[in-house]
Request: fold
Amino acid sequence: VRGLLSVGDLDVATTEELFRLSDAFVEVSARPIPKVPALRGRTVVSVFFEDSTRTRMSFETAARRLSADVMNFAVGTSSLNKGESVRDTIETIEAMGIDAIVVRHRNAGVPHQVAEWSDAVVVNAGDGAHEHPTQALLDAFTLRRRFGRIDGLRVAIVGDVRHSRVARSNVFLLTELGARVTLVAPRTLLPASLEGWPVDVTSDLDAVVGEVDVVYLLRMQRERMGQHFVPSLREYTQRFGLTVERATRLAPDAVVMHPGPMNRGIEIAGEVAEGDHSLVVEQVRHGVAVRMAVLWWLLGSGTDRVPTVSDDGSDVPPGDVGDEEVGR
Ligand code: NCD
Reply:
């Protein structure tokens, strides 16, 4: 299976290589014309069976900045509403001739199935409460840009871990890169079993908020809660929210992160999301560069050389990423 389905697909060396590529694509993204011809002639299709704005736009922007053709399969208007199965949908899309499928689904495991059905490269853009590997990559990359390292960072991941693919992917990637992760949540919002999770666990945010380098807030996933997991959102905020008052106890260099979309006033105060500690905007910006790196890694000629193809489509010798620009 070719693709990025899980952070388990990434060893440390590959992750470092993706970070190196991402650095280069941050630079490309800052140019007046933020585009390189690296994936010209390739087609990337995003197939989102579950709502998303930022992740879908981030992938599509990344693909366009690499000059790939981009298709978008809008589930709301598709034949899925007429009862077409996921498999038929994927086979139909594939028959159109595509190179990569970026897939999101509310059920865990669907991207793995798609990868079995399809010859295209598959990128998991979030499957149920399972994994969201590019989110974890962009979060780790954002930390690496801020702190210059991940090894030794103390990270608190706070809130609805139970329903969070972001938490799961982040725990495994960050710890593999040497961070120390503490989950902070009420018992009801932890997974049923944490066996094999290399983490500490506490339900006392006040005990850790001044001790960590990173406070990573998770969204309360109300759409995935079939039953009540907390007595009330107000009480949740009192104990687990990063309120303005709590944020005053952050270490001076500590950072605050959130994958979005944020429930302002619940897991994070609006003032904190916009405050000096917040990396929320950097996360979104870096998301595009990291997804460019992933698409290039999967569809280009690998991480051993830089993603540059000359305007006439012929290979150019390795240099810096996107030594040249192309028009839109
Ligand atoms: C996350 C997701 O969908 O898993 N958001 C995202 O990718 N932008 C987190 C969330 O929905 O809470």
